[in-house]
Amino acid sequence: MAAPYRVTRRIEIDAGHRIMTHGSKCRHLHGHRYAVEAVCEAAELHHDGEQTDMVVDFGFLKEEMLTAIDAPCDHGFIAAIADTELLTLFAPAGADARDWMAALAARVAAEGEATTTDTRLGTRLTVVGFQPTAECLARHWFTKLAGPVRQRSGGTARLVLVRVFETPNCAAEYGE
Question: I want to staple 68 with a disulfide (CB 3.0 to 4.6 A). Which of 87, 107, 111, 144 is the partner?
Answer without folding.
Answer: 144
